[in-house]
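Quick one: structure tokens for this chain, please?
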Amino acid sequence: MDVSIVIPVYNEAENVAALVQELAAAVAPLPGSKEFVIVDDGSTDGTGAALERLCRQEPALTVVRLSRNFGQTAALAAGIAHAAGAVIVTLDGDLQNDPADIPRLIAKLHEGYDLVNGWRVDRQDTFVTRRLPSLLANRLISFTTRLKLHDYGCPVKAFRGDLARSLRLYGEMHRFIPALAGDLGATIAEIPVNHRPRTRGRSKYGLGRTVRVLLDLVTVKFMTSYLTRPIHVFGLPGIVATAAGALLTLYLGIERLLLDVALADRPILSLGILLLLVGVQFVALGLLGEMLVRLYHESQGKPVYVVRAVLGRSGPPAPLLPAAEPHAVASPR
């Protein structure tokens, strides 16, 4: 399989027929074999029945039906796990993303990139509830991850297949895919894509996701910067707090013993003791993290590096990324 188009859908019964029709027209000029992998993420509005009918009409279509609604990240992971393409393209199933952009994404990918991210330059969404939070989130994510993109939340992406299958996606990590790929050494490009207003169905996005994005950003930052050295996160503040607490209590002890200054009514004594306790706990937490990281890598044989290629030996170059373990999802038809 040359190209796999992976699309998670949830309650999009009104859109899936037009979606498959547009996909078929968009990829028809592309050389090689193509497949459409649509993941029904526990829809309750007849999306599953509509996809079954389409499956009988379109031989390139594979439908993966999940047992319940697991969320967009899990549905995307299920689709990637069932995709066989050397190139994997993702987009949403609400018809706001234009399948006609797929050939441009693939052409950009073939220029030598590992991932091409879409940029909805003229986004057709409400400003207060969608565009403004997205603008702020994109700037915060770019600053935190040091990978500057205009539109992290754009679902339109093209990957090399081995890169897509190497990503471990869970929680709400689908919006941080470029950052996770960049941490593996992937080369990333961004191109403008068309964005259309929603004409059928109801949007599943809102302001409620903002807090989850911030929490996941903390996780991504830790995973990409400190996963192999958690002692650097907790140890430094622990040492600083311990040293400050020790100096403070030493000073207070000298005052009490040599200058006979009463300490019972001085809150600073409690602060010194608190700093000592917190500092010791932070250092202990960093050491526990170090032990867990070693168990994580050594017990599963996970590498702490990524090889892009091996030159000067017989045989093909080593792939950029290791193959992913299969996800536990419903089997395709």
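The beta strands are 3-9, 34-40, 61-65, 87-90, 115-120, 157-160, 188-193.
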